[in-house]
Design goal:
358 residues, 6-stranded parallel beta sheet, DNA-binding, alpha/beta, disordered C terminus, elongated, homodimer, 14 helices
DNA sequence: CACAGATGACGTAACGTTTCCATGATGACG
DNA sequence: CGTCATCATGGAAACGTTACGTCATCTGTG
C-alpha cells in the first residue's frame, strides 16, 4: 500500500541500512548512491514513517501543550509564539485543552506522555502539583506557563502579577481613589492569589480602608463574571470609585455592566483591566491596563523546554527555575480622579497625595 | 528504563499476547487474569507506548489541523470546538500554523502525513489545490475549512461569505448609501473573492456606480491593513459614505483610522465589519457585522472528518461535499443614513428606497 | 466415552525505522 | 608489498505493540 524504505532498497538494489543513511543525511554514503536513492524515493513517492522513526529513535519531535482555554487570547498568543519557535526547531505541537478541569488536566498529561512527546508546556489547573508529579512519573521535561503549581522539578515562566497589581492600585491611589474593588478570578489559581496579594500589599502601603476595598473571587476570568461582579459591587459597595478587573475579559464585562447602569467611565467610575489584548484599545474608553511581555514569555518557555530536552542527562541536576517577567502599566482613558476626590482630599490629604512619603 | 508490556508479562508469568489483550479490553481473557494483569501494570507503573500501538495498528488517533494564524479568533474558535469534539472521540489534535504561506502550508501537510495522522483539517493558503493533492498523495481524509481550494476529493465546510457580503451591502443601500468602499483581503483567497463577488452582485442589483465603490485588496485581514486602507479611501475617494471591512480586525483598524481623522461613526462614516468576535460589541460604537455560526461549522467539520475516517474503505466513492453555512446580519450602531442622504434621495429616489422593486 | 465447539493462553510474526557490527574495497604510508 | 585506517555497504537486531495461528483445557452432547 504505502511505499517503505524496503521498497526503495529493493528498487535500487541497495541495502536497507544504506538507504536509511542516504535519506537521513548520514555522512558515510557515496554521493552518487545518495542521488540514486533520492531519485528512487521520489519516483516511488516514498514518505518516511514518523511513527516508526519515533519508536526506534525514542524521539518523537513533538511537544505537548496543555492550556485551559483555546479561545482566550492570553493562551493562544502563547501557543502561537511557542508554535512558531518550535516549528523552526523541527518540533510539532500537540495542543490539548483542559477547560480548567484538574481531572482533564491530569488525564491529558497522561495521554501526552503515553504518546511520547519530548516535552510538555503546561498551564496547570490546580496549585496542587502532586497528581501532576505522579502522572508525569517518567522523566519528561515540563515547563509551567503563566501559573505555577507545587510540582517539584519543573521550570516555570510566569508574569509578575503581584507587582502588576500593585502598580495598578498605586496608579489609582495616585489619582485619589481610596475605595477600590477587585474582580478576581478563581481562588485556587496562582495568578489570582498573586494579583490579589499585590493588590493587598498596595492597599496596606497606602493605608486604604480594608472593608472599603472588596475582593470578589469568582468562577472564571470571563466577561460574564466581570459583569456579574460589577453589578454586585455597585449594589453592595456604593463607596467604590474604581474597579480593578484582573483580566481583560472581565474588564469587558465590567464595562458592559457599567454602561447598562448608565455610569460613565472614567467620570463615574474608573476601570482598569489586566493584560493587553489587541482589541482593548478600541473599546470606549480605551482601557488602562497592565501589559505582560507575552512574546518574550512564550519564547523563553519554548527555549527553556528545548534546553531541557537537549541537555545530556548527565548534567541534569541543574535546579528548576522560576522565571518571572515584568510588565508595564499602560495608562489610557479609563482612569481618572474620582468624583468625590475633593471631598476625600480635604479629609486626608496626606495619605491621598503623598502615600509614598513615609 | 521504561516499563513495557513485556515487563508486565514477565512479572505476572503470562504471555505477551495475553497481557496485551487484558489491558486493551479484549473479551477472551479470564476476569481473574485481567485483574492480575491490571494490578501488575499499576504496580510497575506501566504506561502503554502510543507510538508502538500506532505503528502496529496503523491508527494514530491524532488528527492534524493547519490554520494560517493562531492569534486570529476566527481560527482559534474553530480549533477550540474541533478540539473539544475530537477529544471526546479519543483523538488528539496536532496544530500547525502556516502563517498564510503556501510553501509552509504544503510542507506542513507533508509533515502531518509523515506522522500518520488519521485525518487533516485544512485552511488552505492558496486556491491552487494541485500541490495539495500531490502532497496528500496517500489516502488520508482531508476537510477544508473556511476557505476552499481546487483540490479534488476533499470536503469543505465554509461560510456563505458571498451572501453575507451582499446582505451587508443591501443593509447599507437601504440606509441610503450609494458609495461604498470594501476593504478586502488578499486577492487569492476564496474568502476574499466570495466576499467581493457578493459585494459586486449587490452593487449591480442596486445599480451603484462602479467607480464610486472601490475595492481595496490588501496583504492580509489584519488591523493594520484596515487602517492603511481606510486612510487611502479617505484620501482618494471622498465620496464614500460607508466602509465595509471584510474582517473584524480590519474593521478595528478602520475605526482607529477614522478616529484619528476625527470622523465620527456612524455620523460621518458608516462602518461594517465581518464576523463577530466577542470584543466587537464593546467597541465604540458597537459594530454592525455579519455573524457566521462558527460553532456549527467547527462541529460539522470534525464530524465530517470522523465520518470519512471511520467509513469502511469499500463504500468510499461518496462524493466530496461542500457545506456552506449561512450567517446573519447583526445591526448595531455603526451604520446610519449618510450625511448626504437627503441630497442623494432627491436625485434618485427610486433606486435608493426601493431597489428591489424591479 | 469420544468428539465438536468454545475458551483462554502462548508464541511468533509483523509494523518501518534506526543503529550497530561485520565485511569488503580502497587508499596511504612506511 | 604488507599493514592499517577509512569508507561504503549489507544484514540483522531492536524499539513496544497488535494480530494471528496454534494448542491445551474444559464443557456439553450424542
Amino acid at each position: 500500500m504505502m511505499t517503505t524504505l524496503k521498497d526503495v532498497a529493493e528498487h535500487t538494489g541497495l541495502g536497507l541500512g544504506t538507504v536509511s543513511r542516504a535519506l537521513s543525511g548520514h555522512p558515510n554514503v557515496r554521493p552518487e548512491t545518495r542521488r540514486r536513492v533520492e531519485a528512487a524515493a521520489r519516483k516511488l513517492g516514498y514518505q518516511s514513517n514518523g511513527l516508526a522513526r519515533a519508536l526506534r529513535s525514542n524521539r518523537s519531535n513533538s511537544i505537548g501543550l496543555i492550556i485551559p482555554d483555546l479561545e482566550n487570547e492570553f493562551y493562544t498568543t502563547a501557543a502561537s509564539v511557542v508554535q512558531g519557535l518550535l516549528a523552526g526547531e523541527g518540533f510539532r505541537l500537540v495542543v490539548s485543552c483542559s477547560n480548567n478541569s484538574p481531572d482533564v488536566d491530569i488525564e491529558l498529561l497522561g495521554t501526552l506522555i503515553e504518546n511520547r512527546v519530548d516535552g510538555i508546556i503546561h498551564v496547570p489547573c490546580t496549585p496542587d502539583g502532586s497528581d501532576l508529579v505522579r502522572a508525569a512519573n517518567p522523566r519528561v521535561p515540563i515547563v509551567e506557563y503563566a501559573r505555577r503549581s507545587s510540582a517539584r522539578g519543573v521550570d516555570s515562566v510566569i508574569g509578575d502579577d503581584e507587582r502588576g497589581s500593585a502598580e495598578i492600585v498605586q496608579h489609582l491611589v495616585d489619582l485619589g481613589h481610596r475605595n477600590i474593588a477587585v474582580i478576581a478570578g478563581p481562588s485556587g489559581l496562582s495568578t489570582t492569589t498573586d494579583r490579589v496579594s499585590g493588590f493587598e500589599r498596595a492597599c496596606r502601603r497606602n493605608r486604604l480602608p480594608k472593608r472599603g476595598c472588596p475582593v470578589l473571587y469568582g468562577p472564571s476570568y470571563d466577561a460574564h463574571w466581570g459583569e456579574v461582579a460589577t453589578s454586585q459591587i455597585l449594589d453592595e459597595h456604593p463607596d467604590v470609585t474604581a474597579i480593578f478587573a484582573s483580566s481583560s475579559r472581565g474588564a469587558m464585562g465590567a464595562l458592559k455592566a457599567l454602561r447598562k447602569r448608565g455610569l460613565a467611565v472614567p467620570k463615574d467610575m474608573s476601570l482598569v483591566g489586566f493584560l493587553n489584548p489587541a482589541w482593548l484599545d478600541v473599546s470606549e474608553p480605551p482601557l488602562t491596563t497592565y501589559e505582560l511581555p507575552l512574546n518574550d514569555m512564550g519564547n523563553m518557555t519554548a527555549r527553556l523546554l528545548l534546553d531541557r530536552i537537549r541537555r545530556p542527562r548527565a548534567e541534569e541536576p541543574s535546579e528548576p527555575q522560576v522565571l518571572r517577567f515584568d510588565g508595564r502599566l499602560i495608562i489610557r482613558e479609563s482612569t481618572a480622579a474620582p468624583r468625590t476626590y475633593e471631598l476625600i482630599r480635604s479629609r486626608s490629604t496626606l495619605d491621598a497625595t503623598a502615600p509614598r512619603s513615609r
